[in-house]
């Protein structure tokens, strides 16, 4: 029996099992088995040489955004509208067969936009090259899920389910669970608050399913069984997602109003070029890019070429800013002067731990190189060798 058949068999067993107190341990074990099988499904087959054919393109710019959706929902048209890069669009499905990158120039930054082929139901199992498409979206900073406003609401649930099946968690944060494997000592289970979804027995059963018999588990929030399995697997990617409803020009105003009020959603029309500027503004807000301008000592700030930081790519502190310029700069920093919204007064003397905000101006003051031992008559020691044996011996006197 193959892995896909095993997954379907376990899903069928979960569907016919009643959910109550008596069966929660059994359902928890089944969820752990499915997670293990899906991880095996993503691994390359044994004996395969080299990497398979994929859609991966070189990272470029300050951020990466992936367009995901069913075929013929307007992904290629949206890419052409936002970037100017031509991506073939036609009235038949699967027009785009490979990954087509484009660059958005917005607020002095460069954002890479990827037009991916349409995915279908069963993409997580490899149908329609779905695994390659989802693998590219794992390396993105933001996912734009393009949906057809005239189609049923079920498309959104199908795509979310396919992405979650391969370890992508949309608009979620990592669960506050501390987990560490140990060599000896058994399983240590603790929590800082009352738990309503998981107890010690269920945690033991899930860990034994993964053949883990020595570990330390600490719950800092009331997490579910799925959160615990995600932490044990350790290969989950938590990514932001914006649901973009295209083709609003073919539905009524009541439907447009209902879709626009849903969380993390935005409505557009590529045909009539409606609300495209709001898509760019929403992308900018979700990615959280921070532009920092440099100011040389005694000169005006350089507002032409900012240093772009983000919390997803390294961080937004002064230390991250220095590392972005050069790795060896941090050792030479004495203090920095900051102008902008993150400063309490202008200029503010800050250390390496200060968190920068968008459009801040930073001037780095470096340590001065001091001469060893002072200067002139204030020297603390002579230039003579430290040991007597190292001194130059004078020639003997002539007699």
UniProtKB/TrEMBL annotation:
InterPro entries the record matches: Beta-grasp_dom_sf (IPR012675), DRG (IPR045001), G_OBG (IPR031167), GTP-bd (IPR006073), GTP-binding_2 (IPR031662), GTP1-OBG_CS (IPR006074), P-loop_NTPase (IPR027417), Small_GTP-bd (IPR005225)
Transmembrane segment boundaries: none
GO molecular function list: GTP binding; GTPase activity
Residues covered by region (Disordered): 368-399
Highest taxon listed in the record's lineage: Eukaryota
Compositional bias per record (Basic and acidic residues), positions renumbered to this chain: 388-399
Keyword terms: GTP-binding, Nucleotide-binding
PROSITE patterns: G_OBG (PS51710), GTP1_OBG (PS00905), TGS (PS51880)
Gene name of the encoded protein: LOC113742742
Domain (TGS): residue spans on this chain: 288-366
SUPFAM superfamilies for this protein: P-loop containing nucleoside triphosphate hydrolases (SSF52540), TGS-like (SSF81271)
Domain named OBG-type G: residues: 63-288
Protein name: Developmentally-regulated G-protein 2
């Amino acid at each position: 029996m193959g892995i896909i058949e095993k997954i379907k068999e376990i899903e069928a067993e979960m569907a016919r099992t009643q959910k109550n107190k008596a069966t929660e341990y059994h359902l928890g074990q089944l969820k752990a088995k499915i997670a293990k099988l899906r991880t095996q499904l993503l691994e390359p087959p044994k004996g395969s040489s080299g990497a398979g054919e994929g859609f991966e393109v070189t990272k470029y710019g300050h951020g990466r955004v992936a367009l995901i959706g069913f075929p013929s929902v307007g992904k290629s048209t949206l890419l052409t509208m936002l970037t100017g890069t031509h991506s073939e669009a036609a009235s038949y499905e699967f027009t785009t067969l490979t990954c087509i990158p484009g660059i958005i120039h917005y607020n002095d930054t460069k954002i890479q936009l990827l037009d991916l082929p349409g995915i279908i139901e069963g993409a997580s199992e490899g149908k329609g090259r779905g695994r390659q498409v989802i693998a590219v979206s794992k390396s993105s900073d933001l996912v734009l899920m393009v949906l057809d406003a005239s189609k049923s609401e079920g498309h959104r649930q199908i795509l979310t389910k396919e992405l979650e099946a391969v370890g992508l968690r949309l608009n979620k944060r990592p669960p506050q669970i501390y987990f560490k494997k140990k060599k000896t000592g058994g399983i240590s289970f603790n929590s800082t608050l009352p738990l309503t979804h998981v107890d010690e027995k269920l945690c033991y059963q899930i860990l034994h399913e993964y053949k883990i018999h020595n570990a330390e588990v600490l719950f800092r929030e009331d997490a579910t069984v799925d959160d615990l399995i995600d932490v044990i697997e350790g290969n989950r990617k938590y990514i932001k997602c914006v649901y973009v409803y295209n083709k609003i020009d073919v539905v009524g105003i009541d439907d447009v109003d209902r879709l626009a009020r849903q969380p993390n959603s935005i409505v557009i029309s590529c045909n009539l070029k409606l609300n495209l500027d709001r898509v760019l503004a929403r992308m900018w807000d979700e990615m959280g890019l921070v532009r920092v301008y440099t100011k040389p000592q005694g000169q005006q700030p350089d507002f032409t070429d900012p240093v772009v930081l983000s919390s997803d790519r390294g961080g937004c502190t002064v230390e991250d800013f220095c590392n972005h310029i050069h790795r060896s700069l941090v050792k030479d920093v004495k203090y920095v002067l900051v102008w902008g919204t993150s400063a309490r007064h202008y200029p503010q003397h800050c250390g390496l731990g200060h968190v920068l905000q968008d459009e801040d101006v930073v001037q780095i003051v470096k340590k001065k190189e001091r001469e060893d031992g002072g200067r002139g008559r204030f020297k603390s020691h002579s230039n003579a060798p430290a040991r007597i044996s190292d001194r130059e011996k004078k020639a003997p006197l002539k007699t």
